[in-house]
Each structure stands twice: as C-alpha cells, then as structure tokens.
Design goal:
This protein is α/β, with parallel strands linked by helices. It contains ten helices and seven strands. Helix 5 (128-145) runs parallel beside helix 8. The structure holds uridine-5'-diphosphate (UDP) and magnesium ion (MG). Uridine-5'-diphosphate binds next to strand 1 and helix 3. Magnesium ion binds next to loops.
C-alpha cells in the first residue's frame, strides 16, 4: 500500500464526507493505493456514524473510536499503530488542510528521500490570537530542537516514512513536537513544504486559550531534558550539586577565615551569623546535597525503567 492517511478528529461530522471524497478523488487521479484511518477521539456528535457510512461505501476507509476524548496525540498514536502504508500522511479533519498536497508530499518522501516532511502554513487563516503565539513558539522550538529549517512544528499536515511513525511515541500533547521526536529517534532528514491553508469551514478550533502556550513550553522543556539527560540524570544533577557544594565549602572557608584573622589580630571576632557568607554556605551546601540525592534517585529510576534499552536499530547484517 502506498499511503495511509491518518486523521484524528473530535466532533467534525460536518466536514467528514467532503474530506473523504476529496481524498478519494486525489488518490484515484494519481493512481495511489491508500487507506484512510479516521481516529474518532471520543466525539459526541455524529462523526462515528458518518465514518461507519463512509466505510460501507469505500473499503479503503478504516476507523478507530475512542470511548472518550483523550486528545490529538493519543489519537495519532493509535492511528500510527494501525497504519500500513509505506508513507503515512496526517491531516486535520476540519478541511483546513488540503488533500491536494498529498501527491507532492508522497513524492518528497519516496523520491527525495525525506524521513519526514512537515507542512508550512505560510499564509494562515486563523485568528491573530493563534498566529502570534505560534510564531514565538516555533522560534523557541527551532532553537531547542536543533531543527533550524522548520517554520511550523505543529502543522497538522505532515508526511512520514512508515518507519518513523512506528519508532516514535506521541503521548500527552507531544503532537506539537513530532519532528523533534523523530529527530531524537534518529530520523534526521526532515523537510518542509509550503501548503495551502483555509479558514475553518465548520465548528470551532479545539485548541484555544493561554494554557496551550504554557503547556507547549513545558512539554518542550521536558523533551529537551529527557533527550539530553533521560538516560544519565546524574550528569546534570551531580554536576549542579557538586558546583553548589563547592561554593558552599568556599563560603565556609571565608567565614572561618574571617574568624581566624580576627583571633590572630587579637580583636573581638565578628559574629558568624552576621556574615552573608554564612547564609550562602548554608543554602549552597543544603541545595548541593539535595541535587546530588536527586541525581542518585534519577539514576535508580532510569536504571529500572522499562524502556532503558530500547535502541532503534536501523539495519543488521
Ligand atoms: N482533535 C482531536 N482531539 C482533540 C482536539 C482536536 O482529535 O481533543 C482534532 C480535531 O478534530 C482536528 C485536529 O485535531 O481534526 C486539529 O484541531 P483544530 O482544527 O481544532 O486545531 P487548530 O487547527 O485550530 O490548531
Ligand atoms: Mg484546524
């Protein structure tokens, strides 16, 4: 099979028939064998009935229905597990992404050898409250992830070589960082294609408000940490702990030194508790020890973690 189109959706019944016939038309025009995997993320409207009907008309339609709403990442995770095509395309169900982009994305993966091609909604039809935070977010994501050529990490329209989706784990709200996940799994040929974007035809965006921004940054921080130190937590906590402990030790010596000098000169020694160095030594030594202990605990956890030896082997002879 050439292509699997994975579509996560939550209450999008109005768009589904048009989306399906559009995909079908594009695939037939280009002679591509395909499947469409609709993942119904606990919709409360008629989405699932529509998917069932589409499945009866078209054997290429497959569906997964969650019992409740888990989020876009879990929906993608299950869609990826089911996908069988050589190239996997993800797109949103709201008709904002155009199926006409599929053939070119497919070509970039199969002929130009990309592992992942992300869409770039250069001209975007969304409210300013979404587009401005997104610019900031993408700038940070580019820096942290070390993928400097991507402008639109969270574009719903993306294409992957099959191995990529089988080797990454999209959980929580990590769908924003799939290119980063792919890069951490060793898939480094990541490209971009400018794609057409349309205003939402039906319904409302499911991602609004400030918390998507805050959570987005926290997730980026977690990913960065996990990738850098997930398997060796002592390297970060031990280093910071030692550094703080050393500063604390130095401060103790200064406090003691001041006292000693005063005694030698025969003048009344100043009270230790009046010296700022005393407080610095206290906090630094306590914090240093704590960080060190955190490092040991981290090592214990990662040594027992189930996935500690999950390496992605590319080939074997
Ligand atoms: N979606 C989902 N589960 C959710 C929220 C959204 O599967 O909990 C789907 C949604 O139906 C759509 C896609 O994720 O197909 C992108 O959502 P939306 O269009 O609301 O996001 P936006 O384009 O506004 O960023
Ligand atoms: Mg949308």
């Amino acid at each position: 099979m050439d292509i699997s189109v994975v579509i996560p959706l939550f209450n999008e019944d109005e768009s589904l028939p048009e989306l399906h016939s559009w995909i079908q038309r594009v695939m037939n025009e280009h002679n591509l064998s395909y499947e469409v995997v609709f993942v119904d993320d606990g919709s409360t409207d008629h989405s699932w009935q529509i998917i069932t009907q589409l499945q009866q008309q078209d054997v290429n339609v497959k569906g997964i229905k969650f019992r409740r709403n888990y989020g876009k990442s879990p929906a993608l995770y299950c869609g990826f597990a089911k996908a069988q095509g050589n190239v996997v395309i993800t797109m949103d169900a709201d008709l904002q992404d155009s199926p006409d982009e599929i053939p070119e994305l497919y070509r970039m993966i199969t002929e130009e050898g990309y592992d992942l091609v992300s869409g770039y909604k250069q001209k975007r039809y969304d409210p300013l409250s979404k587009t401005i935070p997104t610019k900031l977010f993408n700038a940070t994501a580019r820096k942290v992830s070390g993928i400097p050529n991507l402008h639109d990490f969270n574009c719903g329209l993306k294409a992957y070589r099959r191995e990529v989706v089988k080797n990454i784990e999209v959980y929580g709200e990590m769908h924003r960082y799939i290119p980063y996940l792919a890069k951490n799994a060793g898939f480094s040929k990541i490209g971009e294609k400018v794609v057409h974007h349309q205003a939402r035809k039906f319904g409302q965006s499911k991602f609004m408000g400030l918390n998507r921004f805050v959570n987005g940054y926290l997730d980026l921080l977690s990913l960065w940490f996990l990738n850098s130190f997930g398997l060796k937590p002592m390297h970060v906590f031990g280093f910071l702990g030692s550094l703080m402990f050393a500063v604390g030790l130095l401060a103790v010596m200064i406090v003691g030194g001041i006292k000693l000098v005063a005694i030698c000169q025969g003048v009344p020694a100043p009270l230790v508790a009046h010296s700022p160095w005393f407080y610095i030594s206290l906090t630094m030594m306590i914090l240093g020890t704590q960080l060190f202990v955190a490092g040991f605990l981290g090592e214990l956890i990662s040594r027992n973690a189930e996935g500690r030896n999950n390496y992605h082997i590319e080939t074997e002879l």
